[in-house]
Amino acid sequence: MEYKTILNNISNKNPIAFFDSGVGGLTVFEKVKKLMPDENFLYFGDTKNMPYGEKTEEQLLEFADKIFKFFENKNAKAVVMACNTTSAITYEKLKNNYNFKIYPIIQSVCSTLAQMQGVNRLGIIATPATINSHAYSKEIAKYNKDMKVFELSAPNWVRIVEEHRITQPQSIMQVEEILDIMQGFKPDKIVLACTHYPYLISVLKKFMPEETFLDPSLYFARNIKQDLTTSGLLNDKFEYEKFYVSSNPQNFKTASEMFYKLNELPEIVNL
Ligand code: DGL
Known about the structure:
By secondary structure, the protein is an alpha/beta fold. Helices cover 42% and strands 16% of the residues. The strands form 2 sheets. The protein has a 6-stranded parallel sheet, sandwiched between helices. It has a 4-stranded parallel sheet with strand order 6-5-7-8, with helices on both faces. α2 (57-73) crosses α3. D-glutamic acid is lined by residues 20-21, 24, 50-53, 83-85, 127, 130, 158, 194-196.
C-alpha cells in the first residue's frame, strides 16, 4: 500500500507510537522493536474500552481520534494501528487528519497474504467488527481475485487473553468451537486477524498444526521498517519507551508477559 507522506519538520528522534484496546498490539510492538532497536516508542492500551470488536463505528472513531491527538501532543513521528478492528473501521476516515505517518495493519499486510504460494483458500478469524466490515476479503481481492476467503468472528477470544484465562477448560472449548467451524471451509492457512490471538497459540495448536496459523505482524513490522527507511525517518539511538493504559495497569502488565515484559507498571491516562 501507499503510506501518506508527512511534513518534514519532524525529528527522527520522535517516537513511533502504537495503540490497541489492550495487550494485543504488543504482538506487533515486539516485532517492530526487534527490527528497529534504535527507535523510541510509545504504547497506549485502551483497556477501559476493551473489547473494540464489540463497539460501533462511532465509538471506534471517537477512541481512535482521542488516541491520535494524545500521540500528536507527544510528537509521534508515526502511529502504528496495531489493531485490526480500528484499521478496518477508522483508518480510511481518519488517515488525513494528523501530521504523522499512520500504519494500519490490515491494509499493510493484505498484498502479502494475497500472494502466498500454495494458498488458495484463506481463513480469517477476527473480532465481530472486523468480520462485519469485510475489510480482509475486500483488501485481498485488490491483489488476488481468485483467492477464496472465509471470514469468521471469535467473539470471546480477546477477553480470554485480557483476563488471562488461556488455560481454562471453558476457554479451550471456546477456541475449539470456532476452529471446528473454520475446518469445514478446509483452509490452507488461517490468519490470526486480531492482534490478541497469537497469545492463544498454545491452545490453537492443540486442534490444528501450528503452521496453519499466520500471525501477520511480522509482515507488518517489515513494511513499517521499509517505509520509515525510505522516508528517511529512522532514529539512530534508543532513549526511551513508555507505556500507557486507560485502566487496570497491573492487569495489563500481567497479561502482556507472554510477548513483552514491562519493567514498570504502565501509566494511567484518561483521554
Ligand atoms: N486487538 C484488536 C484487533 O486486532 C482489538 C480486539 C478487541 O478489543 O476486540 O482487532
